[in-house]
Design goal:
The structure is a single chain. The chain contains 2 helices and no strands. It is mainly α. The N and C termini lie far apart (98 Å).
């Protein structure tokens, strides 16, 4: 087992170093995939919140415009 860990690898690196690099890269890629998945979920939630807020603001704006047009028509009479 010790021979396996200290056997020279590519470009003079030990097999242990190559193994740790592989585990680190695999772990980093796995974390990156999880991070991307989490960001996708968060962005979907944020988009839904923005959609709801914009819909509510649109309704309030339309109500306000309707109120202003009724006010100006009442003032004309």
């Amino acid at each position: 087992m010790e021979y396996f860990l200290t056997k020279p690898g590519i470009e003079g690196e030990s097999t242990r170093d190559l193994l740790f690099q592989y585990i680190f890269v695999d772990y980093s890629v796995h974390n990156l995939k999880q991070l991307i998945d989490m960001l996708a979920i968060v962005s979907e939630i944020v988009l839904k919140i923005i959609k709801v807020i914009s819909c509510q603001l649109r309704k309030k704006l339309m109500t306000f415009i309707f109120y202003l047009t009724n006010l100006t028509e009442a003032n004309r009479m």
